[in-house]
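Continuing the series of single-chain predictions for the mutant panel. This is the parent chain; the variants come on the following pages.
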Amino acid sequence: MNKYIARDPRTGQPIKVDKKKGKAKQQVLRKGPWSVLRPSQVMDLATGQVASIQVRWQGKEKKLTKKDGIEGIAELPRQLTAPAHIALIEAFGSNQYDVRAAALRVMPTFATRKSDELFDWLSVLLDDDHEYVQRAASQALIECAAYFPSGIESSLLNEVRHNDSRRREAGWNALEILSEHWPEVAADHIDGLLLEDENVLRQRAAKLIQRILNKSFAAAWDLVSWCLNDDDAQVRLSAAKTLPTLARHDNRIATLFAERTLTDANPEVRLAGIKAMTSLNRDSGRVKDLIIQGARSSDIRIRRASIELLPRILGEDQLRILATDLLQNEKDTKLIASLSEMRYDAALEGSEEEKNAALSPALPIPELDRELSALRSYVPVDDLDVSPSKPTSVTFEDEVDDEDDYEQDEVRHD
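Parent structure:
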């Protein structure tokens, strides 16, 4: 049997998935008293050829009926897939609510073998008259989200918007799982939800952007941009909180979005934008301008968050100049203390010890220079004449004698 391939519901093309993160956990077969039956016995119960079979399970006698046979279909060998599929389809239309529910419980596992018509029945049974079947269908929808994004596409569209709170929650649970394993498909659902008039739907959809943004693709960036323009402040706030994650994938786009948040009417959104600055490239001139702009904001929370970032983006001299400037208009005592500390220059305003500590140490004298200096200044004691003597002078006669000697040397040389 060929492996199930998830396909885009719009194009029919296979959906790409991250091999490391996109794979759902391996499905685990549910065990029950039907596990002790032979395949032929399971089929007899599932098709109704045998009304019941008595077995011993976990030390107790159990009477198995058709619903147990249906649940045992998941454990049948693959050569029985075709007849098992027929029995499962018939079970969906059974008059017995417990048989319909049993078929829904086995459906997520069996659909990996043969999914024909199964998801059509899931859509029908979500509106079943019996609440027990409805709950089983909602659970099946959740379990199928990790494996069959195209199969549940139409059902999910309805469930996340349903008036029944229980069914709506099940739909959102399924959409969260879809966001984790199939982000491209989830992005389409979120895109549609952001167009809804109901604020709650847009708010919940905006919160899911963080999940799909981790997969890093452009469709998620568009969703962030649209959310930042939404009328609802909670939607814009959720988008602003995604900026640190977005910065890891595209710092430039994250910076542009952060700039938009600084002019937002809601202070929470502006504060989230300032906090996102810590994740941006702080060497960027534009990021520095935005942080300095925030340090002058009328909102004290934004000023506080921005001023905390100043030592990370400015050198000491620039920081002291800006801190001095900001102190002229600052009224908050805590921020005044912080800015005063940034402005403080130990080399000019500190104690004598602090000023000396700020001085640059003298350069070390090379060893060779030390030795030469010692040799120049050294005079042997034996060469010093410490006895009194007449001052020496050169007389005229001495000079004449020297000249005679010089002339004699020249004659001898000739």
